[in-house]
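Figure 2 data, in text form.
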Amino acid sequence: MQHLSMEAQVLLHEVRSQFGESVAPQPSSDKTARPGDISLTVPSPGHPGHFLEIAQYGTVVEVRYDDARPPGPAERLWIAPEGQFLAAAQGVGAFLSDLVNENVVVVRERLGWLTRLFRRDCEDLAWFREIEELAANTSARIVAVYSWHGTRSRPLARESGLTSASSCRHPRSIDPNDYRLSV
């Protein structure tokens, strides 16, 4: 691996504080990446085949959780003004801590009928959500919830063994009590 940029070194420190020293940086594949920018991939321990990617290019950090379903991953973006990358990297570290501690989860949410009419290529999208927000949301649009270790996950109907066509199209309701935080 080539020499890491200063931003890459700072971000690598934050990521390793959450996932350990085994996280190995790879050169960033983003077209706007500079020499020394990095990409880090961490497999989800709670969901085989799912992974987290943290990409740094310049003063931008993108965190993506890929659940191996199209049309793409849940994404969160940090853009730091020049000279303020440390604060952005610390924000990424805090977000990753919330993700690992399952205070942030990935939610697959069914699109509304009008959006699906225009976007025939997808039925649902993945988003990062705070667990408190999810506890207050009893929407039938939630089709899956993935937590880092899997303790708060609610998989897609076809992943949980339900096989009827209607179970894939109409998600089971989410009980908000499943997501109450214990204090």
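Caption note: DSSP finds five helices and eight strands in the chain.
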